[in-house]
Input
Amino acid sequence: MDYQLSEEQQILVDNVRRFVKEEIIPLEENLDPDAGEINPEDKQRLISITKQMGLYGLGIPAEFGGPEINVTTQTLIAFEMVQHRAGLYNPSFGAFGGAGLAQLFEATEHQKEKYLFPVLRGEKTSFFGLTEPSGGSDPGRAIQTRGVQDGDDWVLNGSKIFISGADQADFGILFARTSEDKGRNGITCFLIDSDMPGFNVRRVVHTLRSTKYATEIQIEDLRVPKENVLGEVNKGFAIASDRLARQRIPYAAGCIGVAIKAQEMAIEYSKIRETFGGVLASRQAIQWMIVDNEIDIRTSRHICLEAAQKADRGEDFRTEAAMAKLLGSEAGGRVVDRAMQIHGGYGMTKDLPLERWYREMRIRRIGEGPSEVQRLVMARNIIGGSFH
Amino acid sequence: MSIRLDKPFQVLSEENIKPIQGHLGVYQLAEPNGYVIYIGYAGGRSLFGLNSELKKELLQREGKETLFRYEVNMQYISRYEELVMLHQVDYGELPERVQKEHPHKVGRLTPLG
Output
């Protein structure tokens, strides 16, 4: 496959690279090394710049006022916009807009008015509530949150864990079992307002990353009107599954972008740091680390772009997206680890972003489906069928 | 496990700060009656972690009797956010200085207990 960038793509990539260098990195210099947020005034200023660039809400369809940039170009941009300290979990501090809640593009008109359009205008934020204490790798079967119909409402009970942003969100997409013994075919997707009685954020779940922390939520007799069912009753898992598959490409791209930056830092440092009368770059041990980094970056980038191109062509991209997610997250971890090794003691400090990326990159092998589940997805698609 | 910072308060004094090392973590300042007036953290840019942050507080609070307690915690940002949210739950508002310093929307928490 030929991944020569078109002239337009090259201009966009160059513009995003310049934006990160001139607007994002200087802001970070005044923040705590673990900070995940900037002040609202700075954020609005950054958004006004990305809007002028025509790059706000990258994947939002034109009919909803977005630039409708294809998945391949979004991926190329994603490689760039994460290349700063907070970039892995808060790319460019949200200046390019969020994921756009693609699930809501197929919502009813009422749902679009109430949820989608305010999100697109930047007035509301949301969370995605899928994983439960009973398991996240096989949500179709593990979901124990129950939804029971009562007149025109559904009454929900259960709990969710590792949910980012639930404490601040205005609403969320929440999955509940609405039919027993039907496995994946008994899951329904609900839109819930976070001010509805019965919605509780019980605690912050502290993990390796401080920014964009996760939360545990508990749902107690939460009444949801039937018009808040997203899609069809008992067909919610398809929504979750589609979202998970689509999310794997930008998720991988984030890991790869950070790996590219770590490699750039490692090369630069290896050329100036002297040991035993010569620069590190002259040592075979270091050269091999840099070469291994390059192999990891190029292979994962290649598969990531292949997945994006298949998605753009409307082909089944699930195998490639799973492969990209697995390769990107694992390769990203190895690259950052080697970059830390090359930097020696400084690599362990908060003076450099490497230690933060190292912690956050570890989560990427679990988040959005662990490597083992990605292999399962690929095996199903390659061999065919589902095995128990 | 309690999610509140419930260690006993100590008087904010040079003597009490001295044994505290340069670890990262979170801390609270309170009035003599235990009312929390500030929540802060010693992050990656603190010169000597909790020790230097508390020394700065001592200088700022000179002449005003103040209590403090702290927790060594590498996840100081998420722990800080959690303490801010808990304060909002417990007191219905944030300490004035936290309000000024806190850059973004404070999350909603409904803790058990």
Remarks:
- The interface with chain B takes residues 32-40, 167-168, 194, 200-204, 206-207, 209-211, 213, 215, 350 of chain A (CB under 8 Å).
